[in-house]
Amino acid sequence: NALWHTGGTVAAMTQACERALACALEFKVETLEFQARWGLCALNITRGTYTPALRHADILSEFASHSTNAVTRNLSHRMLALASHFCGGFAGARVHAEAAADVDDAVRRNHANAFQPDARTTAMAILARTLWIQGEGRLAMDTAIRCMEEAEALGHALSLCVALFWICPIAIWAGERKAARSWTDMLLQQT
Questions:
Q1: Contact 28, 47 (CB under 8 A)
Q2: SS3 label, residue 131
Q3: Pick from 87, 179, 170, 92: which is nearest to 135 by CA?
Q4: How many CB atoms lie within 10 A of CB 76?
Q5: pLDDT for 45-67, tens place per residue?
Q6: Reported confidence tier of residue 114, pLDDT bands at 50, 70, 90
Q7: From the centroid of its chain, how far is CA 47?
Q8: Interatomic CA distance for residues 190 and 64, integer angstroms
Q9: What is the pLDDT of residue 93?
Q10: What single-letter DSSP state applies at residue 156?
Q11: DSSP assignment of 41-106, as one string?
Q12: What pTM value is reported for the model?
């Protein structure tokens, strides 16, 4: 995470994540394995290598299925929604985005998420775009609007940017010029 947010190279981030995973596996520390795989999943999505991202997301899901930690389960759903979306598995992406969006305030405000976008905002944004791709334009736009309203109310710039990144195209595709202009301008102001 430190390399990611301080401008580290993709090679350095990959090496750090792979080393962290190797150490976690060697010492059999499941929590550290989960965190390393989360990093590798996110990194693979960022660099466009979606199949390995989905492989790591599936392993995260297996780990989360045995966890009593709601934050762990929610993160697993979000990563599966994201990786499935980019791999073209839209039915699965929708199921996992809906599960991740159904989150309570305790998970949303968990200290483990302090430097991450809001869990519900991210899930709703992924869900909105997935709905659009599945041909549910009106529901996608309604979800995008609700996502935007919630993201603005949070007052958290990173969450707002994640929402805008995912939902601006929906407004453009739907021909909602006023929303598209407003959201695009807001994204430019935030970045």
A1: no
A2: helix
A3: 170
A4: 27
A5: 988 999 999 999 999 999 999 99
A6: low
A7: 14
A8: 33
A9: 98
A10: -
A11: HHHHHHTT-HHHHHHHHHHHHHHHHT---HHHHHHHHHHHHHHHHHTT-HHHHHHHHHHHHS--HH
A12: 0.91
Write down the pLDDT at residue 108. Answer: 78
Q: Which two tokens stand for residue 89?
A: 């598995």
Amino acid at 29: V
Residue 52 has a CB neighbour count (10 Å cut-off) of: 15
**Better-scored residue on pLDDT, 116 or 179:** 179
C-alpha to C-alpha distances, 160 to 68, 151, 170, 176, nearest whole angstrom? 29, 5, 15, 19
Please say whether the beta carbons of 58 and 81 come within 8 A.
Answer: no
pLDDT tens, position by position, 120-157 = 999 999 999 999 999 999 999 999 999 999 999 999 99
**Exposed, middle or buried by CB within 10 Å (0-12, 13-18, 19+), for 27?**
exposed
Tokens 């929303």 sit at which residue? 179
CB 169 within 8 A of CB 134: no
Q: Nearest Cα to 85, choosing from 22, 23, 165?
A: 165
Amino acid at 8: G
